[in-house]
Fold this protein.
Amino acid sequence: MDDATRHALVQLLGNAMSDISEDCWCAGWLGGAEHDIPELCRRAGESGRAQRWGLGEITPEQGRALVYLADQLGSWADLDKPGVGFVPYQPFPLTPECLQAIDRQTS
């Protein structure tokens, strides 16, 4: 995959993650989304059950689609420093503290 294609796909993935953040928390990019969304997408896709997050949920279909895209890219996305685009990001393995925070937010 060439650099331009990779960049475009990271932007696509980042925008999809941002849409989930907006739908679930009314925040275009909730702090921690770079960790929470990949894990919740993984859980939704593997379990076949929607994962509650904030005021919304991540469906199994969303989860599988984003996991597939991230697998093709070899990364997830995070907001860039100026906050106008996205950069590749590796969220895994998650720290125990991060997993505990996700479990608290989803319960």
